[in-house]
Design goal:
Layout: H1 2-21, H2 25-28, H3 58-90, H4 100-124, H5 143-168, H6 176-210, H7 215-234, H8 239-244, H9 250-259, H10 263-280
Helix pairs in contact: 1-6, 3-4, 3-5, 4-6, 5-6, 5-7, 5-10
The structure holds fe (ii) ion (2 copies).
Length: about 300
């Protein structure tokens, strides 16, 4: 009971914070007429070919930084839209009544993110990329376990973004508008991540109590969440971005980059915080990082 009170208190606190931090996304940014020539749109060490030796021409790398920025923002647009639909379907059901107010802020904020990331791509880069990977097959589960899956996906998604946003928001090599988009997103996401982890824990406990919480079911959930983590890391490697940067044989480069041994420690770093969370909260028996198959 005490734990539930503490959780509710946190939800109330984050709701108040959302009200205080609220901004108008349509007036928040000063969009320059054009992006400065010869600038890195992404920190070069975050390019998907970094450390692989697959591309070493500086001009191509700079162009790839532009295309991978578009890919990164496109991933937010498509990924969060799907997840917003899931949240919207639940927001006024009895299972979610206690969190409905917070979730309204979540939807409002994600709608703003979706807008500003797409706006950047439309203004400076000819638009966003279409969804490039086939969506991960959805498990056929009862409501309580589906809730766990949906909010786990949200927290994984947000942790990946936060890894990059928190760092690129402070990188002076990036043009000011890009730094600002990363920093503003990071600020909102710090609330979402704090909520998301506690909420997933709460939903998992609820599913174990009210639905089939047997070992076999739990193992299947763990397997699905891990597959989603792998799927998410792979989505950073977009062959369209390679092609648009003028890289020959984009599919081959994608395969080679993804499976390069130096990339695995980086994949682990992006996922470290959320992987630890799943293990510590008992949702995972073993860490994703111990046996991920991103490169396979
Ligand atoms: Fe977001
Ligand atoms: Fe978010």
């Amino acid at each position: 009971m005490k734990e539930i009170d503490a959780f509710q208190e946190m939800v109330d606190r984050l709701t108040d914070k959302s009200v205080d931090d609220h901004y108008n996304p349509y007036t928040r940014f000063t969009w320059p007429d054009e992006m400065p020539a010869g600038s890195w749109w992404m920190s070069p060490e975050y390019l998907t070919v970094h450390g692989t030796g697959l591309v070493d021409d500086e001009d191509t790398l700079e162009l790839l930084a532009q295309r991978e920025t578009v890919n990164f923002f496109s991933l937010h647009v498509h990924g969060i839209r799907e997840l917003m639909i899931e949240v919207a379907q639940r927001i006024h059901t009895p299972r979610f009544a206690a969190y409905s107010e917070y979730l309204h802020h979540f939807l409002g904020e994600e709608n703003a993110h979706m807008w500003f990331f797409a706006e950047f791509c439309n203004r400076y880069a000819g638009g966003i990329y279409p969804e490039s990977q086939a969506p991960l097959r959805q498990e056929d589960l009862d409501d309580a376990w589906n809730d766990v899956i949906v909010f786990s996906r949200i927290v994984i998604f947000e942790e990946i973004f936060d890894y990059f946003n928190s760092r690129m928001g402070k990188d002076d090599r990036l043009p000011p508008i890009l730094r600002e988009l990363h920093a503003v997103h990071h600020h909102d996401e710090s609330r979402h991540v704090a909520f998301g982890k506690q909420f997933v824990k709460h939903l998992h406990e609820r599913a174990c109590e009210t639905a089939d919480g047997g070992a076999e079911r739990r193992a299947r959930i763990e397997e699905y969440i891990k597959a989603y983590m792998t799927y998410s890391v792979r989505s950073l490697y977009n062959p369209d971005a390679y092609r648009d940067a003028g890289i020959a044989q984009p599919l081959k480069v994608r395969r080679e980059a993804m499976s390069h041994p130096d990339r695995d420690p980086f994949h682990q770093k992006i996922m470290a915080r959320v992987d630890r969370f799943f293990v510590n909260s008992g949702i995972f028996e073993t860490a994703w990082g111990d046996s991920n198959d991103v490169g396979r």
